[in-house]
Write a structure and sequence with these properties.
single chain, three-stranded antiparallel beta sheet, 5 strands, globular, two-stranded antiparallel ribbon
């Protein structure tokens, strides 16, 4: 699933693909916003993304399956 994180004072968004469920990601975001210093997520390649909680503008949790377009669908 695709997760988009908007960071304050940054023009670009952080976009990552995750194997976690929407509920797990929402729980991690809620835990971070309720007092943790940072939001920590892991993408499908095993990379850890750490965003300071004070700078989070928004978190968009996408759908679990994304439709592919182009020659990759063959």
């Amino acid at each position: 699933m695709e997760v988009t994180i908007g960071v304050q004072n940054l023009a670009r968004e952080i976009v990552l693909e995750s194997d976690e469920t929407p509920e797990q990601i929402a729980a991690a975001v809620s835990a971070a916003l309720s007092g943790r210093p940072a939001l920590e997520l892991t993408d499908t390649r095993g990379r850890r993304i750490i965003v300071p909680t004070a700078t989070i503008g928004y978190v968009e949790i996408g759908s679990e399956a994304k439709a592919r377009v182009g020659f990759g669908t063959l």
